[in-house]
Structures are given as structure tokens and as C-alpha cells.
């Protein structure tokens, strides 16, 4: 087992190195990258199996005992997220490779995409495995550094402007992360998460609150929690669509995961946090209203992404097993569905060359397949039964109503309202983009030259598989939610986590 | 001597203040320099977190001083490498931006400008595509 745990991180990193040195051989890259991605999925599944069998699994990299060395840990939450994220990463990789056969590589520097993408995969893997704060910081940097490169692929003036905002905002939050980490070390004398969870309760209440809020701001910026979300709807739509799909699916979710990890393990609260409840409500409202106000489908999806971060934060803010179960279900559902939505919009863009609702129209007649592929994830993200979004939202609503706190009731009401607003935003795209006759000012569809016919087929197939994956989440909602409930119970009562990490430490 | 040196604490404060001030500037090079200052400030915080300076942290070494805490030094070293790499990327981005846009300034958000222009005109209801204020501005 000890050999297995670093693999979700080490394998893609090795693949990135290989892709880097063979960057002129396009065919080899096209084979190598999906192979490495599939290997990462296999490694993540193996970790999941090991966690299911043994409970929390921990490895001390380098052989130094727990609080001093580098620790990799996988518990139920990280194992689940590892499997989901690596699968989504592989799907988007296939989508990109299929498109790249025609367009991506021809228009950009050869072989920048594959190494950067694999490094991003490695970074995401490490975020979920990191057992100490500093490793978490390094993982975020590995992930974000590759995301800066992906963001600036095929730079246009607009993309460059957006990526400058993105880079500077991310870097600022990283510097704040580093500062918060230094202050935590100064206060508690350790950065190991398990060790911190033992030492932090002994700190003065003021220090604990200050550090907790600092980490909330750090991950709030990275995870686009209102009012720290302003960079996201500006930056994400400017990137290449499949890059946006990765970002939307995983970068903000990694931040939410880190927030869940740090807040439950290091700064637990018995009665939940009203600050987070208010932030969650604000995020839901601002995000979904923004989605309604925008005309570009990429911007609409980016705003719904912001809005739905609020749901995960809501689950965390309740600080109960039920709430965290809802948050975990929501994370899993949203990783899959948000990526699918962006992949579908990539298909729309490939078919019509448009992303603006002003100029889109008649898509249902143009391609019934795209209509079906859009409809299912759109209903899922709005939480219409029987989709995965409904399952996740229902868990959250039940948790909110079961918490017995007036503020949580109010936020549950806001969450219901935000779902309806999301449904409105999706219905707007559905009505304007798919069923309205094609508007007169619509441009000619672009020459299909950049996309090979086979490439488009593969893109459609990958998107269809992702849609099916979203449906599978709803079908297997039972086992998934019992797994999530146990993961949430582990988060609330982290003694197993502590034992797995700190066992056999030097006093 | 148990706590960190006051001079270092003050240096961190100055670095952070100057860094954040430079981040707010429009010129990209200033932003990059501001980011570098912030990075140095954060690394100093890491060093300060280890407490007072002491003897070399070598296992089995002989020193009359109390051993310095090696962990923050290792972390600062890693953080320096990361900051270094990202700074190089930022500089490349600033250079590219200058080549592509012909100026070293952060550009206005197109949509923000459009909304401002619409508001000046007092015509919120008209669809923005009909008369694009951007084209008239330039």
C-alpha cells in the first residue's frame, strides 16, 4: 500500500516530464497523455479500494516520523475525490486530444498543452493527498502554475488581460496562504494537519479565530466565495473552453476541499459558523443572479459555478455530519456536471462558432445530440429530480432544516431560491440558444476545417460519457451517499485520521 | 534572546505594505515587483516563525548554542524556489503583454467599459451590440 499512495501524484508528474522531452512528437504525445491519465485513474481507484479496506491510509515520505516529515494521507473523502477528479481529468484530456488532432496543436506551440495538463493532474492529486499545510501549499502551487500556462495558451489580447488578473489574484492568495502558514507554525509549532488538530485547541481563542479567518480568506479567494469571487467570471471564460472545463471542475473544488479539510480538522466549531452561513448565502445569490444577467454562455456557466460553490460552503458551515455529507455529495456531483456543461459549450462552439446568446439560435434543429447533451447536465445543475443535482441538494436542504438554527433555515430558503434562479438561467439558454429560430445577425458557421470529423465524434462521445457519468451519480446515489456520510463522520470525529498519521511518531 | 528580532518584524511590515501598494498599480512591471516584495515578506514570516536564531541544526553536531529550528528554513527554501519560478512566468507574461498590446498597462475590462459607457449614455435598455461604444472610443 505504501508504494501506491504517492502514485496519483507521481505518475502524472513523470508523464509530464516524458511529455516535455518528447514534445515535438505529436502522435506519441497523443498516446502518452491519455495513457498516463488512465494510469492515474487506476492508481486513484487502487487508493479508494485500499481506503475501503483499511480505513485511513498514511505514508511518511522520506521515512521521517510524522510531525516532521512529509505526510501523504488518504481518507474516505480524499479517496472519493481522487477517483472522481482523475476520471474527469482523463475525460477532458481525451476531449482535448480529439480536438487537438485538428485545431489545438496546429494553432499553438507544439507540446505545451500536454505537459502542463499532466502537471495540473499531478497538482490536483497532491492537493487531495497532502497531509500537512506546507505540502498543501506546494500542491496548490503545482496546480496553479500549470493553470497559468494553460490559461495563456494561444494568447489573444483579451486572454492575456484576463490571465494577468487571474495570475495576480491567485498569487496574492498564495502569498497570503504562505503567511497564514508561517503564523500557524509560529503559534502551534507544527504544520502537520493531524498534529495541528491536537495542538490548536490549546491555543488562545483569539489566535484560533484569527488563523481560521485567514485560512477562510485564502481558500475563499481560490474557491471564488463571494465577495472574493470577482476574478473568476472575468478570467475563466477567456481561456480555451476545455481549459475552462478543467478549471471549473477542479481548481475551485480543490480550494473547497482544502477549506473543508482545514476547517474541520484544525479549526472545528461545535455549533457551526454564522460567518460561513452568510458567505454561503451571498455566494449563492450573487452567483446565480450573475448567471441570469449574462449573455455569453461561458460567462453564464462561470457565474453558476460561483453560485454553486455557495452550496458546498453551506454544507461545511453547518458543521454537522448531515451538512458535510451534503457538501461532499455536492462536490462530487458538481465536479462532473460543471465539466460536462463546459464540454457541451465547446461542442456548441465547434458547431456554430458562437458563444453569445444574442447570436445563437436553432441549435435543437442543428444538432439534436448537442441538445440532449446540454439538457441533462443543465437540469442536473438546477437540481431537477431525478438528477444527481437533486440528490445533492436534497441532502443539503435536509441538513439545513435539521440543524435547528434559524439562520440555517434562512440560508436553506436562499438555497431553494438560488436553485430556481439557476433553473431560470438554464431555461434561458435552452429557449434562446436551442429553440429560437436562428437570429438574422448570426454569423456563418466557421469552416469545419480545424476539427476533423473523427475528432468531433470523439469529442461528442467523451461528452456523452460525461453526461452518462452524471446520471450514474444519481443512479448510485445510495452507496455514494452512505460513503459520503461515513467520510463526513470521519471529518467530524478525526481520531482515526490522527491515529493513522501520528502512529509511531517520536515524542 | 527568545523572540524574533524587531528589525525583522519591521522589515516584514514594510515589505508587505510596499508589495500590496505596488500590486495596486496599473503598470505590469510594478505589479511584478510588488509580487516579488510580497514573496520576500512571506518568506521572512516563515523564518520568523522558527523563533530565535541558534546553532546550526545538524544532527550529531556539537554546538554550545541551542539548535535553530530547521523546518521553517526548509519551507522558506521551497517557497523561494516557487516564488522564483512564478516571478519568471510573470515577467514573461508582462513581456508578452507588451509585445501583443504595445503597452505595459493592465487593460480595462471590456465589459466594464461598455457598462460605464452605457450608463453615461443613460440607455440601459438598448442591446449593447447595436452601438458598440468601444469602437467609438478608440
UniProtKB/TrEMBL annotation, chain A:
Give compartment(s). Cell membrane; Membrane
Please list every transmembrane segment annotated in the UniProt record, as residue ranges.
29-49, 56-74, 80-98, 110-130, 165-188, 208-232, 239-260, 272-293, 300-321, 327-345, 366-387, 407-435, 456-477
Per UniProt, the keywords (alphabetical) are: Cell membrane, Membrane, Transmembrane, Transmembrane helix
Q: One Pfam family, please name it.
A: Proton_antipo_M
Q: Name one GO molecular function term.
A: NADH dehydrogenase (ubiquinone) activity
Q: Does the keyword Manganese apply?
A: no
Query: What topology does it adopt in the membrane?
Result: Multi-pass membrane protein
Residue ranges of every copy of the NADH:quinone oxidoreductase/Mrp antiporter transmembrane domain listed in the record: 130-411
Q: Which PANTHER family match?
A: NA(+)_H(+) ANTIPORTER SUBUNIT D1 (PTHR42703:SF1), NADH DEHYDROGENASE (PTHR42703)
The UniProt similarity line reads: Belongs to the CPA3 antiporters (TC 2.A.63) subunit D family.
Its protein name is: Multicomponent Na+:H+ antiporter subunit D
Organism, scientific name = Actinomadura luteofluorescens
What's the source species' lineage?
Bacteria, Bacillati, Actinomycetota, Actinomycetes, Streptosporangiales
From TrEMBL, chain B:
> What GO cellular component entries does it have?
plasma membrane
Q: Where in the cell is it found?
A: Cell membrane
* The UniProt record lists the keyword Cytoplasm: no
What keywords tag this UniProt record? Answer: Cell membrane, Membrane, Transmembrane, Transmembrane helix
Q: Which residue ranges traverse the bilayer? A: 6-24, 31-54, 74-95
**InterPro entries recorded:** CPA3_antiporter_subunitC (IPR050601), NUOK/Mnh_C1-like (IPR039428)
Q: How does it sit in the membrane?
A: Multi-pass membrane protein
**Primary location group:** membrane
Please verify whether the record's keywords include Cell wall biogenesis/degradation: no
Q: Name one Pfam family in it.
A: Oxidored_q2
List every stretch annotated Disordered. 117-138
Question: Which residues belong to the signal peptide in this entry?
Answer: none
| Protein family per UniProt | Belongs to the CPA3 antiporters (TC 2.A.63) subunit C family.
User: What is the name attached to this protein's record?
Assistant: Multicomponent Na+:H+ antiporter subunit C
The source organism is: Actinomadura luteofluorescens
